Amino acid sequence: xxxxxxxxxxxxxxxxxxxxxxxxxxxxxxxxxxxxxxxxxxxxxxxxxxxxxxxxxxxxxxxxxxxxxxxxxxxxxxxxxxxxxxxxxxxxxxxxxxxxxxxxxxxxxxxxxxxxxxxxxxxxxxxxxxxxxxxxxxxxxxxxxxxxxxxxxxxxxxxxxxxxxxxxxxxxxxxxxxxxxxxxxxxxxxxxxxxxxxxxxxxxxxxxxxxxxxxxxxxxxxxxxxxxxxxxxxxxxxxxxxxxxxxxxxxxxxxxxxxxxxxxxxxxxxxxxxxxxxxxxxxxxxxxxxxxxxxxxxxxxxxxxxxxxxxxxxxxxxxxxxxxxxxxxxxxxxxxxxxxxxxxxxxxxxxxxxxxxxxxxx
Length: 362
Hints:
This protein is mainly α and 362 residues long. The protein has 15 helices and four strands.
């Protein structure tokens, strides 16, 4: 009854009919690829976990070279359940990147980027880039040995961009070297600039998804040509399935954080040599490993510069794929772009595995 009274109170002040109409009419297509629809909501749920735990961590974290490590140590040892909050924050960040990659490539392979959803794809790609920036900026904040040297390598790679590389590296570091100023700068990116940016783009992305509805893969459309496709109501059928997945994710997060608490490691020492086998977070390893295999010089060009350019062009290709894949836009099979997508996934998986099993080459 309380809910009814609240709804009636709101109805007297706000016209809720468009919202009620939208919820009543919203339906989800049911076909053999429906399972991929859940990964977008799962990513959003993990993002919510990131926001909640991140806010709690900011209450104690101190963003400076002198206090960053000690403040994280204080969170893990003296703050009640601080170790659990930090572990959930770290594990959920990794799971969010994983589910986002699965969401991205499922959208790619089902060609959900095709007309009229080009902007939905573009905003999704921008969100993916921002999430990677979240991971990169957050990795340094504990100011331990691994995060220090991984950030040093990562910013050096950013410095390889032609023309703007050195400016970009100084902008990221807040100077010529990775120092306490870099921690402060990354913290500013992590809790202010990136959240503000992602709020705007995420809002636009969700609006476009709701406006256009769920995409149906071209192969499913062709198979059901002339016949109505089975659907399920978003409320309550699909929403309950979403909630079930979120509870499973929450249980998995609690288990991972309890059984495998995120280690703090040793405090960063800029004067110490880099430890053997240093590598970035797993979602950057395929790029890191690829750069190791590229010769130092290819003709008159620096190998790393060409490698960075190659990855940049790859990202640009993915961003623009709705405008390049003309066959999908007209509802025709597009095997070339499907195989390109499969090749990209295979490349990421293979070089990530190499990054963990191959001996250090540098």
